[in-house]
């Protein structure tokens, strides 16, 4: 389990251990990439000297789970995606709900079409949670049919 | 018909259905290339691998591994060459927009859809939470227009699982199409999620030239500048 917060990315569980994945599954494979001093699993990973990372390419059907993880929290009752938490306790939030009436009153600014953001303090958010989207859903849905 | 509200609010129910029908033929597969114009200054943030909470009122939160929001398909903007043309097609003149028509260069993020289930059609109606402008999102007429647009999409055969109810300031139309009458394009809303490896940032200049300036190797490798 990686301990970064907020967690954002794709993660695969192989042989009971979770590793960060470089990108979405493609052609039935995923590429695991780990930045660490030691090889996380010598039976699985090889050293990419050019990039300074341990890497492994694994068939998706060898992975117990492949999930896309994003982090959510509430600010003033508004559901938000947590984009970043700075060392000084500042939290970057993107609004993810469908009720825009109170956004400006509560300090959100439109930063892109349909994207409302604000920076808040860590003590102002609650209900911190992770959303896991199962990237193997289509695979096991097809198998269940 | 709700006459005072532009976009979906200005259409008859029959017109809403005809408009929604467009979305039954606008397909996105995992290898469909999506495009998203970037706010000025974003290229530098990507290249320095910034993950930042931002500063309220100055710069928005940012993560170099993530993108989302309104996107278009590359095939729908393939004929557009200059910043002005792209800004017009996407109608990036929303309230508080950092985009100006005479930008010398516009950076556009291009990436494979990879997971099309992340994409939904932004349907609803134009509304403005800024008290001094437009129709507020909690106004009955706005909500009625938005609901009628979603009902029209269902009647046109659009999968309800692919719709996101959205109320945003004009030039958001609520129809899933941008507001420009000549170069308006179908758009999708992408949930903010990891960028797929292979994404490219292309620079479009006022003389109509373009070139890739950065490439994303994936979350494990980050961005590299192309010279």
Tally of helical segments of chain A: 1
The helical percent of chain A reads under 10%
Range of helix content of chain B = 10-25%
Q: Tally the helices of chain B: what do you get?
A: 4
Strand content of chain B: 25-35%
Average pLDDT confidence of chain A is 93
Largest binding interface between chains: A-B, 51 and 53 residues
SS strand fraction of chain A: over 45%
Low-confidence stretches of chain B: none
Structural class of the helices, strands and pairings of chain A? mainly beta
Describe the structure.
The complex is a heterodimer of chains A (145) and B (227). With 145 residues, chain A is mostly beta strands. Chain A folds into two domains: 9-67, no CATH class; 70-134. Chain A has one helix and eleven strands. Chain B has 227 residues and is α+β, with helices and mostly antiparallel strands. Chain B has helices spanning 13-21, 42-47, 83-90, 140-156, and strands spanning 33-37, 51-52, 62-63, 66-73, 105-112, 119-126, 163-168, 187-194, 200-205, 210-216, 223-225. In chain B, the strands form two sheets. A nine-stranded mixed β-sheet of chain B has the order 7-6-8-4-1-5-9-10-11. In chain B, strands 2-3 form a two-stranded antiparallel sheet. In chain B, helix 1 (13-21) crosses helix 4. Chain B is globular. At the A-B interface, strand 3, strand 7, strand 8, strand 9 and strand 10 of A face strand 2, strand 3, strand 4, strand 7 and strand 8 of B.
Detail the topology: elements first, then pairings.
The complex is a heterodimer of chains A (145) and B (227).
Chain A: E1 9-14, E2 17-21, E3 29-34, E4 46-48, E5 53-59, E6 65-75, E7 78-85, E8 90-95, E9 109-112, E10 115-121, E11 125-134, H1 137-144
Antiparallel strand pairs in A: 1-2, 1-6, 3-5, 4-5, 6-7, 6-11, 7-8, 8-10, 9-10
Chain B: H1 13-21, E1 33-37, H2 42-47, E2 51-52, E3 62-63, E4 66-73, H3 83-90, E5 105-112, E6 119-126, H4 140-156, E7 163-168, E8 187-194, E9 200-205, E10 210-216, E11 223-225
Parallel strand pairs in B: 6-7
Antiparallel strand pairs in B: 1-4, 1-5, 2-3, 4-8, 5-9, 6-8, 9-10, 10-11
Helix pairs in contact in B: 1-4
């Amino acid at each position: 389990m990686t301990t970064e917060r907020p967690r954002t990315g794709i993660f695969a569980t192989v042989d009971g251990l979770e590793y960060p994945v470089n990108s979405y599954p493609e052609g039935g494979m995923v590429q695991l990439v780990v930045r660490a001093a030691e090889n996380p699993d010598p039976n699985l990973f090889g050293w990419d000297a050019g990039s300074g990372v341990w890497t492994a390419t694994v068939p998706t059907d060898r992975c117990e789970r492949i999930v896309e993880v994003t982090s959510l929290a509430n600010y003033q009752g508004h559901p938000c995606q947590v984009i970043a938490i700075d060392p000084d306790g500042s939290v970057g939030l993107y609004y993810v709900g469908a009720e825009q009436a109170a956004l400006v009153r509560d300090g959100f600014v439109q930063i892109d079409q349909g994207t409302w953001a604000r920076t808040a303090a860590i003590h102002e958010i609650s209900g911190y949670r992770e959303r896991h989207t199962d990237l193997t859903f289509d695979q096991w849905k097809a198998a269940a049919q | 018909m709700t006459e005072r509200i532009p976009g979906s609010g200005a259409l008859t129910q029959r017109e809403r259905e005809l408009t929604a029908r467009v979305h039954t033929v606008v397909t996105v597969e995992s290898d469909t290339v999506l495009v998203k114009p970037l706010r000025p200054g974003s290229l530098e943030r990507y290249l320095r691998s910034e993950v930042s909470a931002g500063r309220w009122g100055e710069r928005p939160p940012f993560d170099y591994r993530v993108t989302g929001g309104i996107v278009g398909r590359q095939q729908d903007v393939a004929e557009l060459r200059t910043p002005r043309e792209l800004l017009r097609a996407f109608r990036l003149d929303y309230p508080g927009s950092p985009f100006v028509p005479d930008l010398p260069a516009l950076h556009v993020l291009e990436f494979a859809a990879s997971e099309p289930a992340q994409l939904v059609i932004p349907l609803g109606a134009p509304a403005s939470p800024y008290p001094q402008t437009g129709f507020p999102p909690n106004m009955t007429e706005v909500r009625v227009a938005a609901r009628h647009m979603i009902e029209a999409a269902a009647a046109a055969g659009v999968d309800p699982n692919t719709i996101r109810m959205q109320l945003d300031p004009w030039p958001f139309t609520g129809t899933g199409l941008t507001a420009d009458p000549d170069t308006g394009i179908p758009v999708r809303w992408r949930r903010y999620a990891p960028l797929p490896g292979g994404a490219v940032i292309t620079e479009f200049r006022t003389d109509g030239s373009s070139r890739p300036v950065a490439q994303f190797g994936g979350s494990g490798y980050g961005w590299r500048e192309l010279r």
